[in-house]
Fold these 2 entries.
Entry 1:
Amino acid sequence: MRVHFIRSAFKRSDFPPQDRPEIAFAGRSNSGKSSLINTICKSRSLARVSSKPGKTRSINFYDIDGRYYFADLPGYGFAKVSKGMRESWRSLIESYFEGRDNLCAVVLIMDIRREPEEDEKMLMEYLNYHKLRVIPVLTKKDKVSNNEARKRQKLAEKFFKDMKAQNPLLFSSRTGEGVKELWSRILNSISKH
Ligand SMILES: Nc1nc2c(ncn2[C@@H]2O[C@H](COP(=O)(O)OP(=O)(O)OP(=O)(O)O)[C@@H](O)[C@H]2O)c(=O)[nH]1
Ligand SMILES: [Mg+2]
């Protein structure tokens, strides 16, 4: 697979043309979005993995094999950032979701150790309103025991069922668990778009 970084977008006019299927990756800051993109692209350094959460302020676009775009969205849910920062996040995200017709699915990434919260609920309602397909992923599975993972998965299943979304899949960027299943869901959403 040939993958490369295209650009960081801070406004609509920076977005690439809508000439191919696109998949977006959304989730709380520090949930593991960039790591997941690197893992499924078999690249160590395609997407910048942050040591400081909430650093990504732009939408980062990647070219996947000249066939698709991946969009790494800035993380949400940063209690520590200013209101001004939150507003600029909101306006960038809204300008992205409103009218991105080539967008086939949004991979919603959650740290398996966290329960879905108000932020996830709001994002899900927003995505449902825009009739966007959601692929929920519980990542960092290697951080918990299998027992704990099952417990977390059950909780998340209920949440996503209530939100009329697919069942979440278990993933780990450390072990590669879930990579095949995620690709199959991504390709499925592209073929159905
Ligand atoms: N053990 C483990 N650590 C992970 C996994 N995925 C991500 N991490 C770690 O979690 C931290 C955050 O990962 P990122 O991929 O930068 O998260 P992000 O969602 O892109 O963060 P922002 O861009 O700041 O919103 C890093 O220290 C990663 O090494 C995983 O599956 N397992
Ligand atoms: Mg990131």
Entry 2:
Amino acid sequence: MQEAVCGSCTMLINGHVRQACSALVDKLLEEESAEIELRPTSSFPVVRDLVVDRRRLFRALEKVRAWISVDGCHDLGPGPRQSPKEQEEAYPLSQCMSCGCCLEACP
Ligand code: SF4
Ligand code: FES
């Protein structure tokens, strides 16, 4: 199994949106069907074959500056203080890899 951390391999596999790098062929053939159907996700424009253009998602992240700058090695200071409750709420959001699965799956 690969890392499943970048989202670039997201596609529809047997009709379910997921990461191709962590979809095991043996398991798919055993548990789902004798054939494996691959399709590009429908949430983004298709560039070619299974490759989609996720720039819509990245542009939205740019609009809200949804990142922490790490350019350079200068001291960025201690950062804003967060309560444990705020940390608990923010941590799951920080794990988003911009794969777009939720855009495909959510009606
Ligand atoms: S929130 Fe959406 S885009 Fe982010 S990792 Fe989860 S499914 Fe992917
Ligand atoms: S190759 Fe990065 S999530 Fe699959």
